[in-house]
Specification:
The protein is mainly beta. It has one helix and 25 strands. It has three domains: about 110 residues, Beta Barrel (Virus Head Decoration Protein, Chain: A); about 100 residues, no CATH class; about 90 residues, Immunoglobulin-like (Sandwich). The two termini are about 30 Å apart.
Length: about 325
């Protein structure tokens, strides 16, 4: 005798719902989808552009691409404002100086760092007084030829242009020994943008040419031929989504990655959007026969069940 396979029915899962069918809601199933009874759904709650909008007054001609919504995206306009333009970042130096190959003394230079007034180019420290062993005096020349205050061996040198310490070695310096430091310009393609959410919250800053990843929004600000200047702006307007129902999808970024309930009947929208009915709140269910996306993991299913529980759809074990 051939076996009969009974199709899924709503009462296989739904064990109780609020009176007057309060638990149910008419949903619009997105065109191109075909949802079956008991299929877990998500809703399209946001619409996020794939690129940011350049302000007309921007100096830089770079752009913002690869925009996607994060899990906690807000509806409204995100603003990215340049707070550090290209090439305006801090000048950098190596951590140690370079001894002249012809030096008699074995002095080394450590703790090198550029100050806020540092210049691009070569700083040269030359011994001009070796009278006191271990406390030799070095002249300090900036890249533009200006003479800065002298440095004393074994004493930390602090200046608005450069900081360092010339160390006292076993072999002492003589007049004419020199040490150099090469100060390097900031990357011309650099830049830093302050990110503000629609509710005014300040998010972490974004760096030009570095992918920005945040629970609210993801994107990349790309450098162009002309560097960004302080005050340049990009905006990203996140609009409300269509609210249409689709199969829940863990990879989605439009809100349908979250479980919004499950279908109370079949709905074929393969040709055009159609109305369907879903259980979206206040119900008791046995989750065994819910229809999940192919390949859904136990962890994903549990997370979606937790989201439905937040709406009052409580899963219980079969009696």
């Amino acid at each position: 005798m051939p076996s009969l396979i009974e199709p899924n029915r709503l009462n296989d899962v739904l064990k109780w719902e609020q009176e007057n069918r309060y638990s149910r809601e008419v949903v619009t199933v997105k065109s191109g989808e075909s949802l079956s009874v008991l299929e877990v759904i998500g809703k399209i709650t946001n619409s996020t552009p794939v690129s940011g909008t350049n302000d007309d007054g921007n100096t830089g001609d770079g752009d913002m691409t690869d925009v996607t919504a994060g899990d906690q995206v807000q509806l409204g306009t995100y603003t990215a404002t340049c707070v550090q333009g290209g090439g305006s970042g801090a000048i950098t130096t190596p951590a140690t100086g370079t001894r002249n190959a012809g030096n008699t003394g074995a002095n080394t230079m450590t703790g090198v760092s550029a100050g806020p007034s540092a210049l691009v180019g070569t700083y040269t420290m030359t011994c001009i007084d070796a009278t006191v062993s271990g406390s030799e005096i070095f002249e300090v020349k900036a890249p533009n030829g200006a003479t800065l205050p002298p440095a004393t061996v074994a004493v930390a040198y602090v200046n608005t242009q450069i900081d360092f310490t010339i160390n006292d070695p076993g072999a002492k310096a003589i007049v004419g020994d020199s040490i150099t430091v090469e100060a390097t310009a900031a990357d011309g393609d650099s830049g830093l943008f302050a990110i503000t959410a629609p509710d005014g919250t300040a998010l972490p800053d974004a760096t030009v040419d570095v992918a920005y990843v945040n629970e609210q929004l993801n994107f990349t600000i790309n450098d162009g031929a002309t560097d960004f200047a302080v005050g340049d702006i990009f905006t990203i307007a996140v609009a409300a989504g269509s609210g249409q129902a689709v199969p829940v999808d863990s990879t989605a970024v439009d809100g349908s990655q979250h479980a919004a309930g499950f279908m109370a009947g079949d709905a074929d929208a393969s040709s055009a959007a159609v109305a369907g009915v879903a259980i979206v709140r206040d119900a008791i269910i046995v989750a065994t026969d819910l229809v999940w996306p192919d390949g859904a993991t136990t962890g994903q299913k549990n997370a979606w069940l937790a989201e439905m529980a937040d709406a009052g759809i409580v899963a219980q074990s079969a009696a």
